[in-house]
Design a protein that fits this description.
The protein is built from nine helices and six strands, in the order ααβαβαβαβααββαα. It has one domain: Rossmann fold. By secondary structure, the protein is α/β, with parallel strands linked by helices.
């Protein structure tokens, strides 16, 4: 078992206040969107499923999906309503959703997951690698579950044992994710501790640091450009 990183901790209150810069990131994205569309690599029409973060729904990822769709990807929301955080039920439902899309299109999926949605996307790939060609996570708490996030107090108030959840997350690593993973994180993330976004266990993972708020991970021009590039990367280019 890997030795735990003692530096793991939720973001500070000051970092959480920094999430207010989402307004600037959103405005920048709207201003640069036409140029981003012209300069980003094109998609090949394959399905891309985008999963939202805790307490959010498909409305929060609409701009990212619209951008990916404009590049030629078949970008879809997860269609499961609000992300209520009940992980076992959501993994099962998301596996069913991915299987339905793969069956409809005859193609495996690329999964993009923001925050808790990224954790769920990874678990779909772990359970059904036949359905998934690549996973892109955006500020996903892959270590500790909610323990190292600003949502931790909410889980505690609801009676959840954060240590037990952390142990359950760790236990899932006994079955490695064999699908390529692109893990995007920001050191200035005000919701998820950035070290909890680093995947030290999967055999095929690359990390990509961006400068963004947590909310900006689905509204930042830099992230949009990066996600487009990661989705378009071929296996050969990835290994180069």
């Amino acid at each position: 078992m890997a030795r735990p990183d003692r530096r793991l901790a939720p973001p500070s209150r000051l970092a959480l206040l920094g999430e207010a810069r989402i307004a600037v990131e959103w405005a920048a994205m709207r201003l640069t969107l036409p140029r981003l569309r012209r300069s980003s690599p094109r998609g090949d029409g394959s399905p891309v499923l985008v999963a939202p973060g805790f307490a959010t729904d498909d409305g929060w990822t609409e701009s990212l999906r619209g951008f990916l769709g404009s590049l030629g990807w078949d970008a879809r929301g997860w269609g499961l309503g609000r992300n209520h955080g009940r992980v076992p039920a959501l993994i099962e439902a998301l596996v069913e959703r991915a299987a339905a899309i793969a069956g409809e299109t005859g193609l495996p999926l690329r999964l993009v997951g923001w925050s808790l949605g990224g954790f769920l996307a990874r678990e779909v790939a772990r359970e059904r690698p036949d359905l998934v060609t690549r996973v892109v996570t955006l500020g996903a708490p892959v270590v500790g579950g909610p323990k190292y996030t600003a949502s931790a107090p909410i889980y505690v108030r609801k009676g959840h044992d954060l240590d037990r959840i952390e142990a359950e997350v760790e236990a899932r690593e006994a079955a490695p994710i064999r699908v390529p993973i692109e893990a995007v994180y920001s050191r200035s993330d005000g919701v998820v501790g950035w070290r909890a976004c680093l995947d030290r266990r999967s055999p095929d993972v690359r990390h990509h640091e961006v400068v963004s708020s947590h909310l900006g991970l689905v509204a930042s021009p830099a992230v949009f450009r990066l996600v487009a590039s990661l989705l378009a990367t071929t296996a050969g280019e990835r290994m180069a």
